[in-house]
């Protein structure tokens, strides 16, 4: 016969089994959102789920397709000096580097340490780290990984790029100390003007829609000329090209030509179909 105590014991065991079964089939409880920096583009991300959220934007640190930052490190083992170059927003090809965002030079070599096509942002606490992977393998068929910790320093007028270590082979660590690493620390610069090419001597400005048209200057029989201080003569016909030749040299179907009075020859210095660029310093195309 069941006693009252035995009945209570069995009921308790049954309740425990039912509770365990219910817990095992329950949906997982959502944890608190973790901090993250949602990638906006190759050199900006939006910091979320932290005490001070906002945009981390490095665009204003960059002036063009050349390294923005440089640091140098002497190897304790070999005594060799290595240079490190970094552009957080644009891949570059200076110093023999194969168009990376980060490059190491030294000992007669240039090594891709990270490419903007392979950048991600990670957060620990409220500190953002940009993690790059190289696009090109080294001579051993290995690629490289580089971490750049973005250190917020609100009073820093000039950004500083510092090599930290190579904790394991082919894995590098740097710090970029700048106010632009602070949430909303730097404004995104306005987009650079461009001029959409219509034909060989006409383009349309993307900023105000105005057309730059050089057709009225086109005259292959009487090109625009200029002479420099050394005596070289330059000929320019923007649209249809020009024709200049002698027994030694020839400019044929090009827009720009240099005449060398010392060697009595001509050199082609510009094709008819141009590449249109904007000069930010002169504020002109």
Distance between the termini: 101 Å
Q: What is the average per-residue confidence, as pLDDT, rounded to a whole number? A: 82
Tell me the fraction of residues in β-strands, as a range: 35-45%
* Biggest sheet overview: 8 strands, mixed
Number of helical runs? 1
User: Low-confidence parts, pLDDT < 50 over ≥5 residues?
Assistant: 1-10, 13-32
As a whole number of angstroms, the C-alpha radius of gyration is 31 Å
Order of helices and strands: HEEEEEEEEEEEEEEEEEEEE
Q: Looking across the biggest beta sheet, what order are the strands in?
A: 4-5-6-7-8-9-11-10
Task: Walk me through the structure.
The chain is mainly beta. 8% of the residues lie in helices and 42% in strands. The protein is built from 1 helix and 20 strands. The strands form 5 sheets. Strands 4-5-6-7-8-9-11-10 form an 8-stranded mixed β-sheet, with no helix packed on it. A 4-stranded antiparallel β-sheet has the order 15-16-19-20, with no helix packed on it. Strands 1-2-3 form a 3-stranded antiparallel β-sheet, with no helix packed on it. The longest helix has 22 residues. The chain starts with a helix and ends in a 15-residue tail after the last strand. The N terminus is likely disordered.
């Amino acid at each position: 016969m069941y006693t009252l105590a035995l009945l209570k014991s069995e009921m308790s065991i049954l309740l425990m089994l039912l509770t365990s079964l219910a817990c095992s089939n329950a949906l997982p409880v959502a944890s608190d959102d973790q901090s993250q920096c949602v990638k906006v583009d190759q050199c900006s991300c939006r910091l979320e789920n932290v005490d001070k959220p906002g945009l981390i934007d490095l665009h204003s640190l960059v002036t063009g397709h050349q390294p923005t930052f440089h640091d140098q490190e002497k190897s304790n083992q070999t005594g060799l000096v290595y240079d490190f170059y970094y552009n957080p927003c644009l891949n570059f090809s200076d110093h023999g580097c194969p168009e990376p965002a980060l490059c190491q030079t030294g000992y007669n070599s240039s090594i891709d340490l990270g490419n903007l096509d392979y950048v991600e942002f990670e957060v620990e606490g409220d500190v953002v780290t940009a993690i790059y992977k190289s696009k090109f393998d080294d001579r051993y068929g290995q690629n490289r990984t580089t971490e750049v910790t973005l250190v917020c320093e609100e009073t820093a007028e000039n950004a500083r790029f510092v090599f930290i270590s190579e904790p394991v082979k082919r894995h590098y660590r740097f710090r970029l100390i700048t106010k632009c690493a602070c949430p909303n620390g730097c404004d995104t610069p306005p987009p650079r003007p461009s001029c959409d090419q219509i034909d060989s001597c006409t383009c349309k400005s993307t900023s105000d829609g105005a057309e730059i048209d050089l057709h009225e200057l086109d005259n292959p029989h009487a090109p625009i000329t200029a002479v420099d201080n050394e005596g070289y003569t330059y000929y320019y016909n923007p649209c249809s090209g020009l024709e200049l030749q002698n027994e030694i040299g020839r400019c044929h179907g090009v827009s720009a030509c240099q005449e060398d009075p010392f060697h009595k020859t001509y050199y082609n210095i510009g094709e008819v179909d141009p590449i249109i660029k904007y000069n930010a310093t002169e504020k002109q195309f």
